[in-house]
Amino acid sequence: MFTIDIVLQDMPLPISVQRKEAEAAESLYQQILNAMRSGSSDLVELTCDKEEDKKVAVKGNLICAVSLNKKSGGMAEGRVPGFFAATTANK
């Protein structure tokens, strides 16, 4: 499963959708990049392969960042949703 996280202006949490296939995830990633580059306020409509009833539409000019990650087995790898994670080291 591949997760695409999208950060919007003035929104602290990312929007996430999943794709089962690498090709579909890369295609969506490129579609979002194109929307960001164009600066247009056209809507980008997103659906999710994992939660089939999940739908969201965002204006392309409000997208600040996009991330594509391969998800394998939940939180086993220590990853958290989104782009940034703070960690502390034991001393």
From TrEMBL:
InterPro entries: UPF0367. It comes from the Bacteria. It holds the Pfam family UPF0367. This is Uncharacterized protein. It comes from Waterburya agarophytonicola KI4.
